[in-house]
Input
Amino acid sequence: MTARRSRFRHIALLAVSTLALFGFTAPASGAASGSRAASASGAASTSGAASASGGGSHGKACRNGYVGLTYDDGPSATTPQLLAALRANRLRATFFNQGNNSLDRPGLVRDELRAGHWVGNHTFSHPHLTQIGEPAAFQEIASTQWVLRDITGREPTLFRPPFGETDDQVRADEARIGLLEVLWTVDSRDWAGATADEIAAAARTLQPGGIILMHDWPPATIEAVPLIARDLAARGLCAGRIAYTADDVPYGTQVFHAKAVRP
Output
């Protein structure tokens, strides 16, 4: 285990130096949008397993569309319990994993994909990207990209900046790597100690295409899974994958371009 972890850390460091050596350049704004759209359209094949362990049926069950269930900061010690809850309730989700946690628990990253979920990039150590400057911010994203690719054999296409903090420089870094920025339309506040009922209540405000922020470490978040599943079924909604949209999705004073769609 120690030797394997050391190899992963070496790859992460090599990734950063290699990216710097070849000097990625940001595409023009139009090209960047096109790149993100293309990357997102292939997310099901490059960021998630081909079929879910449950996944649920479509058609009438999903008559009112799809929402994005997302879990940040993992993988953690409780990820197996979260995966079991999602499997029992036939839900799929996107896991925004940190590079350092992925190095510590690479098997759980692979378990997420095997269960039919999608894996995205959440930086290496969860810093405030808008405050640490360059090249540190770029290295946080790029090194995690390489770590996740080495673990899974797949190139992540989705990225969530820690704390939802983004700016022009962070978005330029994302574009250099070809990542779609994924923020959220609903905050479950599980990170602030919300109960399972409160998390489920937040999920009930999700609209078709919407994305909810959750984390994979709070026990209440795992307890909320069956409550969320029942509400989505009652409203004719299904858990979907996240893809690019040309629409402006409001996020505070900013916008982003991601929504939930059919897997």
The longest strand covers residues 241-251. The CA atoms of residues 102 and 109 lie 7 Å apart.
